[in-house]
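User: structure tokens for this one?
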Amino acid sequence: MIKTLETSKGNLQFATLDASNSTALLESIAETLQSVINAVGTIGFVVDNMQRKFEVEKAAKNKAYCYIIESGLIKAFQSWSATKHPQTDWHNEIIKELEKQSK
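Assistant:
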């Protein structure tokens, strides 16, 4: 996208030197703008998708926290958490625990 914008900037600078080519220049600018619009749309789709995934994960964590609190396990959770390193890879910990429980 940066290259596209730089090309467009170059075209605009060229236009001040050669006004006889204005139709071709305008077509080039229109193509560049369409490319930018497409890129922005793609970025928007990616952001929306990430937001949806985040909301699903947040809901799952809130459900787990609610279970911990309603079950009276908050003190046990705090004690358990204190034994874990701050840099613990929780995804790997979950996988290990599931594998252990499935045997």
